[in-house]
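Next comes the chain:
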Amino acid sequence: MAATVVIAIGAFVLSFASLTDLAVRSGIDSTLAWIWPIIVDGLIVAATVAIVALNGHGRRAMVYPWTLLFFGAIVSTAANATHAILSVDRSPDIPAVVAALVAAMPPVVLLLITHLTVHMFQKRAEVAQEIEASQAETAATDEAYYRELQMRRAEAAASLARALETNDDDREHRASVESLEAELAALQEEADAHVERESGGFFPSATSAVDLPGPSRVN
């Protein structure tokens, strides 16, 4: 990201110098000539900011800022090339075409860097959306599993109560209930650690566990 900013600044400075000199050559007062590159290249900067700010919106919302960006880039490129051609008499050994190509590079690079920056922001947004969707899916799965454990715990507790009423061996039922209670408590702790601080948590308190009946009546 830092490299793109440095390149963009360099391209802007070179273009600024050329467009300022072109404005002076075109008859604009030297004290006001700096406004011309601000208008032309400033349009590129403003369009870039708009594109980044509108990233993620529909294509229709992006048409206008992209149109402004290409318009500003075309004007800046043409103006830089024109300045190079007019200034080629200072270096007669350099062909006008070469001078024009060299001068046209800063605005072209500025356009390419802009597109690269937007592409980077788009990828970051996509990754963030994927992470958010994955977290939401995981949370939904954990919640469903928690509800299932609660139902199984209630069924096990009911089976334990029936076993106690009929004087059957309740050890298996008691072990099942205790195992489910432990699993519910562990899941609640995980939810408290990883989910609650972001979303407020979705699990009911583990303290709502079903009370186990009294000690086994089987010796």
Residues 160 and 173 are 5 Å apart (CA to CA). The radius of gyration is 35 Å. Helices lie at 2-25, 35-53, 59-87, 96-165, 171-194, 196-199.
